Amino acid sequence: MMELPVSVDATGIAVLRLGSADETVVTFTKERLLALDRALQALAQRSGLRGVVITGPGPGMFCAGADINLIHSIQSVAEGRDAAILGRSIFERCRNLTVPVVAAIEGPCVGGGCELALFCDVRVASEHPSTQIGLPETKLGIVPGFGGTQNMARLLGLPTALDLILNGKLLRPVPARKKGLVDRLAPSTKLLAFAIEEISKLAARGKKAKGRQLRGQAYWFSKTPMRALAVNAAKKALDKGQARFYPAPKAALELCVAAFTMPIAEGFAKEAQALGEMIATPVSKALTHLFFLTERSKRLGKGNGARPIDSALVVGGGVMGAGIAGQLAGKGVSTRLCDLSGEALARAKSRLQQDLSRRVSRKQMQKHEAQATQDKLAVATDWGSLAHVDLWLEAVVEDLLVKKKLMAQAVARGLPSDAILATNTSSLPVDAMADSVPNPERVIGIHFFNPPEKMPLVEIIRGKRTSDAAVATACRLATRLGKFPVVTSDTPGFLVNRCLSPYLNEAARLLVEGNEPEFLDRVLLDFGMPMGPCRLLDEIGFDVATKVSEVMEAAFADRMQPCSLFAAMVAGKALGKKSGGGLYDKNGKGEGPGRKVLDAVRAHRGVPKRTASRSEVIQRLIYPLVDEAYRCLDDGVVAAEQDLDLGLVMGIGFPPFLGGITGYAKAEGKKTIVAALDDLARTIDPRFRPSDGLRRRAID
What we know:
Elements: E1 6-8, E2 13-17, H1 30-44, E3 51-55, H2 68-73, H3 77-96, E4 101-105, E5 108-110, H4 112-118, E6 122-126, E7 132-134, H5 148-156, H6 158-167, E8 170-171, H7 173-179, E9 184-186, H8 191-205, H9 216-223, H10 227-238, H11 247-261, H12 264-279, H13 282-298, E10 311-315, H14 319-330, E11 334-338, H15 342-361, H16 367-376, E12 377-380, E13 391-394, H17 400-412, E14 420-423, H18 430-433, E15 443-448, E16 457-462, H19 468-480, E17 484-489, H20 496-513, H21 517-527, H22 533-540, H23 542-555, H24 564-571, H25 594-605, H26 614-634, H27 641-652, H28 660-668, H29 670-683, H30 692-699
Parallel strand pairs: 2-3, 3-4, 4-6, 5-7, 6-9, 10-11, 10-13, 11-12, 13-14, 14-15, 16-17
Antiparallel strand pairs: 1-2, 7-8, 15-16
Helix pairs in contact: 1-3, 3-12, 5-6, 5-11, 6-11, 9-10, 10-11, 11-12, 14-15, 15-16, 20-23, 20-26, 23-24, 24-25, 26-29, 27-28, 29-30
């Protein structure tokens, strides 16, 4: 039976820890909840008690929330409701104690951990960089169910509570203090002392909690008819974009409003019922599945031979190189960005400064942290000494000879024999770059996606000679950067571009047949993609799409012939956003110069225009995407279905609420997909013929 550590000093102040000293991560399992219940009941019976401090097992950890395995395992509404009632009733014992209770927070205090803290009289947070506090439950397709919506709304007011809960935001110590989520900040070394001091203050006044009343906008938009303005604004936001596919934020909105329209006991009951309803939805199961995949991805960086990267040299000051260098510097890697163009380097520095200034203004980081990042990034037209470089990475033009030449120069200039030699290629063979490199086992692909600051996926491309240690080191670096690594074999297009190519090619063919870009984009947005294929082509650039298509055609000529529209757009200099417009204008709103190119291609085709049905669009774009994903699995591009799901959700934005590409295939029915592809192969083109692997899975 689990027991939580409790100590009581000579003054009658107890310290209750949520785990033992050897626990680095604390989550609320049923066993831990019951142990907390026993500890609180015992404290309630203790004579001479003056107050209770609730804290984590040690430095850097309070509580990372409910155990995700527990959330994923709950299948029924009643089971979810009962779990909510149990957790909340245990946390409520903190409020029912007759003595002050203070939460001493360091490290993650999220989900159930935050809900426990909200039942405490005072929250003291450590200024340690690992400290985060908030309720991210909506990101798992559920609502806070242990009292979170009711307590946070009443504490902070409706507008702030909606902003935090509906978006699943986590706050660092300073913003949390400014918003009133924590009452006091403390240096890490004085956290317990400050918490005990708060108990002494309350005990001296004979009070349990600091008095706090909503004031100003928090009051007017929570407790008066003006509340409708905040509610309507939130509803409007939840009805747009991808938010409309997720029921949990809408349920959380109703619960936050209930905090001001119902007695608290009724609000708690409504919240428990809502948790039960949300936790049993397919969306919640899909999102918890994705959470497990991200945790699996993080473990890749803990493989044998994984080494830390402390110093990096990035060659190429374009959009990708500058973005990658900024990411490295932001995580404390001493980084030198090199390019022959001084203007490119100046733009890179300016871009990083703008990004940091924006994050400071949004309270996402402090000024000294921004300055530390700037100090970690140096720019130069010359590489300088490579003697202490751990990672050499190129992000230059997609030309194999150029990349091989640069790697050879790195070796010749004294790059250490154990340093990682990495390429950011999106399509070229990594193993070919290792041909003339001593110790070729250290050559690896580390493929970031554009823009590197925002895209969460990194493809770790393993050449035939790449070592396990190099793969583990690259995965460790990706995880350090806050990315999710997926290991792929060294094949054309790797995973993401190989799957994306038939999707974008087919979208271009549908355009040439007579479908308008707005129609195609609307169909895919309604499917759940974050961006339609036509807008995505403008973002990628038709020049890049053409190059990738040529690589894919060379490898898979039977099904990946480039659409004629690609070359025509390049010839017409309507490349997309980078050239002032493509199918859309440079702002992505109105018609772009590429519409004339499209009209000319249609006219040259000499066939009457036709408009596809919405179901045909899905079958021609999404079904081949499913088929190509399984081809990648069968060809050994990735090791498991989990890699397909994570890679395509994080790499192309395949709808997370569908449970990844394999979850979608299961729900849609593989037999249905195979039958539709067979029909398209008969009526349109043999390129749609499904793979033997997908056909076999449809029978199994």
